[in-house]
Design a protein that fits this description.
- Chain A: GO terms for molecular function: DNA binding; sigma factor activity.
- Chain A: InterPro entries: DUF6596 (IPR046531), RNA_pol_sigma70_r2 (IPR007627), RNA_pol_sigma70_r4_t2 (IPR013249), RNA_pol_sigma_r2 (IPR013325), RNA_pol_sigma_r3/r4-like (IPR013324).
- Chain A: It holds the Pfam family Sigma70_r4_2.
- The complex is a heterodimer.
- By secondary structure, chain A is mostly helical.
- Chain A contains 19 helices and no strands.
- The longest helix of chain A has 25 residues.
- The radius of gyration of chain A is 25 Å and the shape is elongated.
- About 5% of the residues of chain A have low confidence.
- Chain B is of the alpha+beta class.
- Helices cover about 15% and strands about 40% of the residues of chain B.
- In chain B, the strands form two sheets. In chain B, strands 2-5-1-6 form a four-stranded antiparallel sheet, covered by helices on one side. A two-stranded antiparallel ribbon of chain B has the order 3-4.
- In chain B, a hairpin with a 2-residue loop joins strand 3 and strand 4.
- Chain B starts with a strand and ends with a strand.
- Classes of the chains: A mainly alpha, B alpha+beta.
- Chains A and B meet through loops of A and helix 2 of B.
């Protein structure tokens, strides 16, 4: 069992790291210094809390400790003098409760918008968000993304250098920039989630943590930006997907498709949370791609048995999604939903039309969907050909094994 | 922060050489962010120079033979990268060419 002080420091690390670093960056303008001081503050907490007990407000305690450490470090270097005066000014005017005032934006929001600035490369945004906001170590991040530790350290250093040298502002973008900046933040969180969710490689455990981390960050974002329905939509989408994680793989580690999953192993609590969040968000009447995808996930998650799935509703939602973000993959999903709702012939007509455009040439899920529809129409020979075509295009062994099983089941 | 906007385009950009900036320069000068800049003659008129071991080496043409070539530059001074992005996006060349926003070294 973990002793209570270690547990308290662990919990504080998860809950407060981002806030401490974000506040220190605002005060000092120095990302490396902020991280170093935050690290020192947590080390100090481990020692001091053992002796004096866990403080009533661990976050405020840690922020003060990190700030004092910054003052110490800045005092030691000549160039720190000017910065020190700024920090000292902050010490007098900035009460620890300042972050609770409604019109003062939370420092973590500044941090996340800066980490996800579109002038940074996508992989740099992801790494920086995990390091500075979530507090993951360089080693962990490197392992999660299957790159060397040195390469990851370099990526992080380069990103921080670009922020400093290119003058990327440390702020929440003004309202007129939000419509283009918020999607960049949501995209980073969704990418993080999907990296964890589609974990098939050796580093499984680490990558599952990524999904949980993405959900945690999305919760923070939703709390900080309660008026942004797409932020809530993304969180709902993640919760509804995450609820199914235990049923997604079989003992051999193979993917189990939705209709074959043991629905008893879905997390009913998470599904209820996701649906409640989504319902409240949709009521605002400002739908976006994440809300629509969450609504589709909710249709699946709330069906007690596969045959209870409201496919007609799903087909309508995919049509809506296709209008919001036109893409051939969305069209394919719509065709599958139509095939379930209105019969395989209707679905096949859509799939064949899509096939003729050539937009999904080389994408194994198109012949796979076609094969299923042909099978249901009793056109067995054509179905077999389509399964073989799909298997030839599939990228992973698990997918090939799945398609081989479907082919064998044709008899 | 000071930035230079490097305005690049392929050969097709040459037909815009005499377009001017559609009032962009005037607007930015009035706003007080424009510090200087110019349009450039085509890369075919360029001479490239290196000094190696005391010897001046000249060659005809630009320093890199790439599809995209520098066609002009502007020096701006503004608050941060977001403002620089907004200023560059308003430049008419952004619609047919590419603009590189490069921060200046602090000296």
């Amino acid at each position: 069992m973990t002793p209570p002080v270690e547990a308290a420091v662990d919990r504080a690390f998860r809950e407060e790291w981002g806030q401490v670093v974000a506040t220190l960056i605002r005060w000092t303008g120095d990302w490396d210094l902020a991280e170093e001081c935050a690290q020192d503050a947590f080390a100090q907490a481990l020692r001091t809390w053992r002796r004096d007990g866990v403080p009533r407000r661990p976050g405020a305690w840690l922020t003060t400790a990190a700030r004092n450490r910054a003052v110490d470090l800045l005092r030691r270097e000549a160039t720190g003098a000017a910065k020190l005066r700024e920090v000292a000014g902050v010490l007098r005017t900035d009460d620890d409760d300042a972050g609770d005032e409604p019109d003062v934006p939370d420092d973590r929001l500044r941090l996340i918008f800066t980490c996800c600035h579109p002038a940074l490369a996508l992989e740099a945004r992801v790494a920086l968000t995990l390091r500075t906001l979530a507090g993951l170590g360089t080693t962990e991040i490197a392992r999660a993304f299957l790159v060397g530790e040195q390469a990851m350290a370099k990526r992080l250093a380069r990103a921080k250098q670009k922020i400093r040298h290119a003058g990327i502002p440390y702020r929440v973008p003004p309202a007129h920039l939000l419509p283009e900046r918020l999607p960049a933040v949501l995209a980073v969180l969704y990418l993080l989630f999907n990296e964890g969710y589609s974990a098939t490689a050796g580093a499984d455990l680490v990558r599952h943590d990524l999904a949980a981390e993405a959900i945690r960050l999305a919760r923070v974002l939703v709390r900080l930006m309660p008026d942004e329905p797409e932020a809530a939509g993304l969180l709902a989408l993640m919760l509804l997907h995450h609820a199914r994680r235990a049923a997604r793989l079989d003992e051999a580690g193979d993917l189990v498709v939705l209709e074959d999953q043991d629905r008893g192993r879905w997390d009913a609590g998470l599904i209820a949370d996701g649906v409640a969040l989504l319902d409240g968000t949709l009521r605002r009447g400002r739908p976006g791609p994440y809300q629509v995808q969450a609504a589709i996930a909710a249709c699946h998650a709330t069906a007690a048995r596969p045959e209870d799935t409201d496919w007609a509703q799903i087909a309508v939602l995919y049509a809506r999604l296709a209008r919001l973000v036109p893409s051939p993959v969305v069209e394919l999903n719509r065709a599958v939903a139509v095939g379930m709702a209105h019969g395989p012939a209707a679905g096949l007509a859509l799939v064949d039309a899509l096939r003729e455009t050539g937009a999904l040439a080389g994408y194994h899920l198109l012949p796979a969907a076609r094969a299923d529809l042909l099978r249901r129409l009793g056109r067995t020979a054509e179905a077999a050909g389509a399964y073989r075509e799909a298997a030839g295009l599939a990228a992973t062994d698990a997918e090939r094994r799945y398609l081989a099983r479907r082919l064998a089941a044709l008899g | 922060m000071k930035y230079v906007l490097l305005i690049c385009g392929d050969e097709s950009a040459a037909e815009h050489a005499d377009d001017g900036c559609g009032g962009w320069s005037e607007k930015m000068a009035e706003r007080g962010v424009l510090r200087g800049g110019a349009g450039l003659r085509p890369p075919g008129d360029a001479t490239t120079l290196r000094v190696r071991e005391g010897e001046v080496l000249l060659s005809d043409g630009p320093f890199a033979e790439t599809k995209e070539q520098l066609g002009g530059f502007c020096l701006i001074e503004c608050a941060d990268l977001d403002e620089a992005i907004e200023i560059a996006a308003a430049h008419p060349a952004a619609a047919y060419g590419t603009i590189e926003i490069r921060p200046l070294l602090d000296l």
